[in-house]
Amino acid sequence: MAQIIWYPGHDVLLKDVVRAEDCYLYDSNGKRYVDLESGVWCTSIGHGHPRILKALSEQAAEITHNGFIYSSPVVEGAAREFLALLGFDGGNLVFLCSGSEAVEYGVRVTRMITERPLLMTMADSYFGAYGSAWRRDESEWFSFDWIPCTACPDDRSCNNACKHRAAIPFDRIGGFLFEPGSSSGLVRFPPVKLIRSIVAEVHGAGGLVQVNEVTTGIARTGRWFGYQHYDISPDIASLGKGVGNGYPISVTAFAPGVIDRLGGREIMYAQSHQNDPLGAAVAREVIRVIGEDGLIARAGEIGEVLIRGLEAIKTRTRRIREVRGRGLLVAIEMEDGPEETLTKKTLPDMLDRGFVLAHRSGYGILRVDPPLTIAQRDIEAFLKTFEEVLTAIS
Length: 394
Ligand SMILES: Cc1ncc(COP(=O)(O)O)c(C=O)c1O
Fold this sequence. Notes:
It is a single chain. The protein is an alpha/beta fold. The protein folds into two domains: 17-49 and 294-392, Alpha-Beta Complex (Aspartate Aminotransferase, domain 1), CATH 3.90.1150.10; 50-292, Aspartate Aminotransferase, domain 2 (3-Layer(aba) Sandwich). It has eleven helices and 15 strands. It has helices at 38-41, 50-62, 73-85, 99-113, 132-135, 163-166, 192-204, 277-292, 295-317, 341-352, 376-392, and strands at 17-21, 24-27, 32-35, 92-96, 118-122, 141-144, 173-178, 208-212, 236-239, 250-254, 320-326, 329-334, 355-356, 358-360, 365-368. Helix 2 packs antiparallel against helix 8, helix 3 packs across helix 8 (277-292) and helix 9 packs parallel to helix 11 (376-392). The protein binds pyridoxal-5'-phosphate.
């Protein structure tokens, strides 16, 4: 273990996972765990999905990797399918390898197009492991704290009669990078009227709206994309995680006309695996499976069972402060203090009983983000076990 560098703030609780199938992980003793975190939202349609294994092996047997000077039909075809899914027919797209890249690429293009110095985002958003969106320098970014808006007395409009909104320097903002719901794993959803008013302002000034769908996209929230809960029209969409079902592939897509605004200037982003056929074949198969197997509606339906069950447990046990979620993107904020005593006890107890939950450390939050294929009986078994564990903790 010592030779591997792990991400800080998380203990490696399962040390010998040797196999995975659909929503289950198995350790070397054959013990089975229900995977309720999908490896940080990645295995959207379940581990080892037969259609993805087939797409992987068939494409690998044909061609895995493209150089910069040739393309292949699978890349071109997958791009067209993604653009159609996003309503960006006639637009442009690049396949990359991680969510961080998908976000950064869009930010880079926005900065090339806008003549204004700042991009706006929400203060609690997460965009990736590196780059401008990770650094968030104040000279380049305006970060808006939207939490005060949750106490807004006006439930219809959002305008500059509000001092908090009036402080947004729209005259210096050329783009809005919006993460519709994950909030750095806290699972919080900014108000619709606020988002619609920011988008209208940015678009009105000729700016660009980029949605970061790395976590919320590909049906997780019960719609194809998280931004669809806001009835807005983005110019750029960044997809990652679930789009590869565990294979490292991501997408940055541009609405028609956006790339034209570069006026022929080149996007200097060289990366050895951009637009590789293997990733494109996987991503194309993932969206086909989601569409053909009705997994969008399913995420909404199973999510409702889960959220309703957790609300009932909250009432009965008084150990949950809040349940938040859309579809199968769900957070349980525990009735916990800064030491997270309850959360840190619950996590290994659930693991002992065969359920893998995600932990958002520092906030007393447990997350339930299973593959969209999870059986309702597994959700019901989780709810039963979760209540038993919470009740047993003294
Ligand atoms: C909302 C959001 N955006 C971007 C990223 C970065 O994606 P990746 O870790 O694949 O680079 C993450 C990763 O957790 C994320 O949650």
